[in-house]
Amino acid sequence: MQKAIEILEEGIKFNPDYLDFYTTLGDIYIKQKNFDKATYYYEQSLEIDANYTYVLDNLGYIYDVQGIWDKAIEYFVKSLNIEPNNIYALERLSNIYWYRLRKYDDAIPLIQKIIFLEPQNKQAYFDLGEVYKEKGDYDNAIIYYKKYKTFEPNSAYVNLQLGEVYEQNKNTQEAIKLLLLSINQFNTDLKNPEIANNPGYLKEYYYECLLEISTIYITQQKNKEMISIYEQQINDFPNDGRLYAELGNFYVRINEPEPDKTTLLNKKACSLGYKITCH
Questions:
Q1: pTM of the model
Q2: Helix, strand or coil for residue 7?
Q3: What is the pLDDT of residues 109-144, one digit of tens each?
Q4: What secondary structure letter does DSSP report for 198?
Q5: What count of other Cβ atoms lies within 10 Å of the Cβ of residue 198?
Q6: At how many degrees (to 10) do helices 202-219 and 223-236 cross?
Q7: Is the pLDDT at 238 greater than 90, yes or no?
Q8: Which element (helix H / strand E) includes 91?
Q9: Closest by Cα among 266, 243, 255 to 183
Q10: DSSP 52
Q11: How far apart are CA 210 and CA 237, in angstroms?
């Protein structure tokens, strides 16, 4: 790669107006995460062609990943002024607005435009569901999460989000239905050896789902039903220390009159390596 850099830098000396020398050097440095040099060469290329959206997008990306969002916005907006249907810029800019800056009303029309341009873009439906949920517009969140489910009907995560939204919307019956569906799907996914070896955030969402439905069941005084769910999960994943701790915590939340149950569960969690205060 160093040899290619030297050749390109030499080429600039002989032909300083040749655009591809600068963009190629920018590409090399961005792959190396040398953002200062990538920025320098991309900006040099804009001196030759200020309307090169590829370069504007890459500069937007560089500032985005560095958390310099005002500059990232500046470049993505410039790109979209030149190429209004630029999906990449629409996606990156909308993500900055809603996920980074919580400017939901700025993000919504951008995501809606993505859907208009690419009706099969399932991620856009998901993102719009997330935006509306964060904004507290639960009716629209339900609409777009359900549209996403037409692409991914077995998504445990989206069922979890829908369950939470229905609970916020005071439709507890539908919330329970979706949360139970989500738990079953998480359970199935986590039994898949490929996923089990590297579950990533999947397990955190699984625990979140259990906590969400346990909160509903406590208000409905369905403690036995929830204990049964925890015990089934422990039966399926007997080496998951956190499940024992979560069941122990559930006993605390329902004021279980036999504290030994919580103590024994916490000791089991500790024996399996789950970090919790054990006595």
A1: 0.88
A2: helix
A3: 999 999 999 999 999 999 999 999 999 999 999 999
A4: S
A5: 7
A6: 160
A7: yes
A8: helix 87-95
A9: 243
A10: -
A11: 14
